[in-house]
Amino acid sequence: MRKAHIFLLVVFILTLGMAGCGSKAKPAATPAGQTGTTAPTPKPPAPDRTGWPVIVTFGDSLTAGQGVAPERNYPSQLQAALDKQGYKYRVVNAGISGDTSAGALNRVEAVVNQKPVIVILEMGANDGLQGKSVAQMRANLATIIERLQKAGVKLVLAGMEIPPNYGPEYTQAFRESFTGLASQYHVPLIPFFLDGVGGRPDLNLPDGVHPTGDGYVYVVKNVMAVLQPLLTK
After folding, report:
1. DSSP character for 29?
2. Which helix (H) or strand (E) holds 96?
3. Cα(196)–Cα(202) distance, rounded to whole angstroms?
4. How large is the C-alpha radius of gyration of the chain?
5. Which string of DSSP letters, residue by residue, matches 167-228?
6. CB within 8 A of 98, min separation 6: which ones?
7. What separation, in Å, do the N-terminal and C-terminal C-alpha atoms of the chain show?
8. Is 121 helix (H, G, I), strand (E, B) or coil?
9. C-alpha angle with apex 147: 113 to 106, nearest 5 degrees?
10. What is the pLDDT of residues 38-62, one digit of tens each?
């Protein structure tokens, strides 16, 4: 009887071993709530820009970033470009959609109160699209420039263009108002704020006027080309 029990026990153990050799190991179960994929690397926290010198982007909907996510508008992308290149400035978005040079003149004191070291003035597109007096627009912009310079602010002026269907005389006078102001007040000029973007459907929203987030990549390059000589690290 004892030998028989031992024989049966050996057979049982061998049977288990053969069954184990023929089976494949199953992967460990994924804990609930996990997909099994690598978790994305968290973004580093934004730097504390308290006390950094201020750059105000002063403009209309092209500055405000109408139609794009806040992190994709030009002031936000400009901030990212400055951070990446090691410039310690805090960019303030003072863009208001639909604003004209007259509206900007009414809020120039609010910009001065931000105590900026640099202001990027992008204004006049709505004046042109509404067919307003070029002479009046230029006078408004001149007053804004004078007020900012009086406050010791460095300026960058963004040149604008309007479609040719407004007539050659109007479009030329509109364009020359920006070059004339830059020369008169000795301020750096971005020849055309939307250079590389205007007229490209792939870089503009369906309205054909406002850039997409990708369009603003080009705008920031246009801005940085003129802004960079004014910056210090």
Report:
1. P
2. none
3. 11
4. 31
5. -HHHHHHHHHHHHHHHHHHT--EES-TTTTTTT-GGGB-TTSSSB-HHHHHHHHHHHHHHHG
6. 60, 61, 126
7. 94
8. strand
9. 70
10. 656 666 677 888 899 999 999 999 9
**Residue 81 corresponds to which tokens in the numbers above?**
């470009």
Q: Considering only CA atoms, which of 67, 75, 127 is closest in space to residue 101?
A: 127
Short-list 87, 85, 58, CA closest to 74: 58
Tokens of 27: 């992967």
- Percent helix, strand, coil in the chain, to 5, is 50, 10, 40
Query: What is the Cα–Cα distance from 108 to 148, expressed in whole angstroms?
Result: 8
Q: Is the dihedral of CA 107, 81, 125, 168 positive or negative?
A: positive
Place of tokens 């479609």: 163
- DSSP-derived letter for residue 161 is -
Backbone angles phi and psi of 133, in degrees to 5: -60, 125
**Residues labelled catalytic:** 61, 207, 210
| Structure tokens belonging to residue 95 | 């863009």
For 76, the 3-state DSSP assignment is: helix
Coil/strand/helix, residue 158 = strand
pLDDT in tens, 7-42: 333 333 334 344 444 444 444 454 444 555 565 666
Cβ-based neighbour number of residue 203 at 10 Å: 19
Tokens of 115: 């105590």
Residues 58-95: tens digit of each pLDDT: 999 999 999 999 999 999 999 999 999 999 999 999 99
Q: What is the pTM of this model?
A: 0.81
